[in-house]
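Following up on my earlier thread - several people asked me to post the actual chain instead of describing it. Fair enough. Here it is, all 106 residues.
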Amino acid sequence: MRGRTGLRFGAAAAAILAIATLVVMADDTKPPKPAKPEKKMEAKAKKLGGAELYQIHCARCHAERYATERTAKEWKTLMLHMRVRANLPAVEAKAVLKYLQEDSGK
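Reply from S.P.:
Thanks for posting it. Predicted structure:
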């Protein structure tokens, strides 16, 4: 009889272990934290301004360009492309675009 009791105890222990493992694994699969709120991005864009954001983000990959090198329309087209390539938040991209268009070659 001891053999069967040991098997029952072993099966029960294995079932408890399997359930505990599933519970622990379920806790590990928490949803990712939400992205930074848009308001924090707006505050950063206002704090730094378009010129500073331009220097920070654009100088990472290439030499600085003068705003007068392009027209306002050309800067808008370029910014659409570069926003994706540089992974810029919309608020920061708008601030940079505004800075470039203000001093553009019209």
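Residues 38-102 form one domain. That should answer part of your original question.
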